[in-house]
Design brief:
single chain, about 400 residues, alpha+beta, Tetrahydropterin Synthase, Chain A, four-stranded antiparallel β-sheet, 21 strands, about 40% helix, disordered C terminus
Length: about 400
């Protein structure tokens, strides 16, 4: 818009429309082209608007609707929603805006094809896949006039994995259990919430805490529990925090079990203690939709001085056991020698064989044997004596 002398002129482009006002009152809508008006008193103004994929501000539309109602249908696609109704506005076939309930919006349609799809969300809680795709496209496209991204207020979306159970709550009431997959719901005039529960076995570590045995010895016990949810509907009703509740339950169980046993019983009967804990916990979780598959003592931690005493006792027990085994082996060896002596006494030939066996072992260690026949005697005398010795032995 330019002023020169007493003339007002403006050029409206193809992608624009202009409002001509006189003394602040809207008088007409200007089409594309060159417009000139004689305006010596400067009473006229020209206001230009872009019309390509555009929306007219609500205040200007209200003025235009009052001043020139006959041009509304030609220039604008007016979207007016009721309660419980959502409208998806598309520009040239591409979703661009999501209009919530009780809204009035005006979109220029002189240069853009404007399509409007209305959805009765009061009767249809679930968002159809086609509508969800349009909402996603609107999120990626154009921001709403309010400044919020499309779908930020009106749609609740979640994805339930194969190992999960999804529970749908509407206004705080459990409505249904959702199958694995993608789910979306309209949140207009209602509170929609989806709780997802992991159905896979989960490990719960129960950390060590100080507790007293029956014989007043302080110790700490750490445990490991494996749990899984078998009935999600019952679990969410019975327990707010599954792991926290199970943690405290196992703590109570181990305290009761340790308090009724001495230190020796705790250390020596671990399998019995594990079985007792499992029975205690399973009895109390069977009505909650939770299953405890495994539960056992992982570590028993003793104070320093008690641990030293226990180590000394264990060392003494092992020493005594080693001495006992050594004595048993010595007794067995002595008994074997006695039996061998009796056999040799009853059988001289066996004794002779034993002597030869001993002689053989002795000879194996001898490197050389020297034979002496006596002074002045030769090899013949030595051989003669050997023969004589052999004859005497035979006799």
């Amino acid at each position: 818009m330019t002023r020169r002398l007493m003339m007002l002129s403006a050029t409206v482009k193809d992608d624009e429309r202009a409002f001509l006002t006189r003394n602040g009152r809207l008088t007409r809508v200007l089409e594309p082209g060159r417009h000139r008006y004689f305006d010596p008193l400067r009473k006229r103004e020209i206001e230009t608007h872009n019309v390509v994929r555009a929306e007219l501000p609500a205040d200007r539309f209200t003025v235009l609707k009052t001043a020139l109602p006959e041009v509304i249908g030609e220039l604008f696609e007016v979207v007016e929603t009721r309660g419980g109704e959502i409208a998806i506005v598309s520009f040239d076939g591409r979703p661009a805006h999501l209009v919530g309930p009780w809204q009035l919006r005006a979109f220029w349609k002189v240069a853009t094809r404007v399509d409007v799809e209305r959805i009765d969300v009061a009767s249809h809680r679930k968002v159809e896949p086609r509508h969800l795709a349009m909402v996603e496209r609107a999120k990626q496209g154009f921001p709403l006039v309010s400044g919020l991204r499309a779908g930020a207020t009106y749609v609740a979306e979640t994805v339930v994995e194969n190992h999960e159970a999804g529970l749908l709550y509407v206004e705080g009431k459990l409505v249904e259990r959702l199958a694995p997959g993608r789910h979306a719901y309209w949140t207009v005039d209602r509170k929609v919430e989806v709780k997802r529960l992991d159905l896979r076995p989960q490990a719960v570590e129960i950390t060590a805490q100080e507790m007293l045995t029956k014989d007043r010895i302080s110790l700490r016990v750490t445990l490991t529990a494996l749990r899984r949810i078998v009935d999600p509907e019952r679990a969410v009703i019975a327990v707010t925090d599954v792991d926290g509740w199970l943690y405290r339950l196992v703590q109570f169980a181990i305290r009761e079990a340790v308090a009724s046993r001495t230190l020796d019983e705790v250390l020596s009967a671990k399998s019995v203690l594990d079985a007792e804990l499992r029975d205690y916990v399973r009895e109390r979780v069977k009505e909650t939709g939770i299953e405890v598959t495994e539960l056992g003592v992982k570590d028993v931690i003793l104070p320093g001085e008690i641990r030293e005493l226990v180590n000394k006792v264990v060392e003494a027990e092992r020493t005594a056991k080693a001495n006992l085994i050594r004595r048993q082996e010595e007794t067995a060896a002595t008994r074997s020698l006695l039996n061998t002596a009796k056999l040799m006494e009853e059988n001289p030939l066996l004794l002779r064989l034993k002597e030869l066996e001993s002689l053989e072992r002795l000879v194996e260690k001898v490197g050389r044997i020297d034979l002496h026949a006596g002074e002045g005697q030769g090899l013949d005398a030595l051989l003669t004596k050997l023969v004589r010795l052999k004859a005497n032995e035979t006799a």
